[in-house]
Prior knowledge:
This protein has strands at 2-8, 24-25, 32-39, 50-57, 62-63, 69-70, 87-99, 107-115, 120-122, 128-130, 139-144, 160-163, 170-180, 194-201. By secondary structure, the chain is an all-beta fold. The chain has a 4-stranded mixed β-sheet, with no helix packed on it. Strands 5-7-13-11 form a 4-stranded antiparallel β-sheet, with no helix packed on it. The chain has a two-stranded antiparallel ribbon with strand order 2-6.
Amino acid sequence: xxxxxxRISGLPNLGCTGGLQMKLLHDIAGMFFGxxxxxxxxxxxxxxxITFNGGITSSSxxxxxxxxxxxxxxxxxxxxxxxxxxxxxxxxxxxxxxxNCPTQYNxxxxxxxxxxxxxxxxxxxxxxxxxxxTSSNLFLELRGADDxxxxxxxxxxxxxxxxxxxxxxxSAPFKAGYYAPVMPVKVGNFAVVIxxxxxxxx
Length: 202
């Protein structure tokens, strides 16, 4: 599950509601604020004018079709595919398709911000495991479409930007798979809850 926070680049985090599940869950209903400053032309020792311009929009990104959740099913793989510490396997392409994004912004930046479940464990190098999974020594690894690791919980620089189309839609491709930080890997089910942050950019 991904829970999504939305904010505007350069402004504080305005919070979030809902989620996306990996299993992708999402339901955002936020208010977003922008502020501009114009300094008046008449500036001297006795007078100055500062005008504050802003705006409020009720528009925020949501999953395509307005559905509350989108399922992403990773393949069931054999334990023998994990040959040693740090081995990966079973990667699957998936898209986060958004609509209703505010078109006054050009791009939306997506960052996987945290392991969102109270039972989750986050590996130090940016992978995540759900504590309720019955498999052991397996973590979720997320990558961009370029196959480069996207560390969960990393700084804002470890993110991807996507164009907001004129109709407010966004298509954001990623990859997800299994990562074995220690051995041996033991059989069982696997599910992970991930927090994702959206930042709107000019």
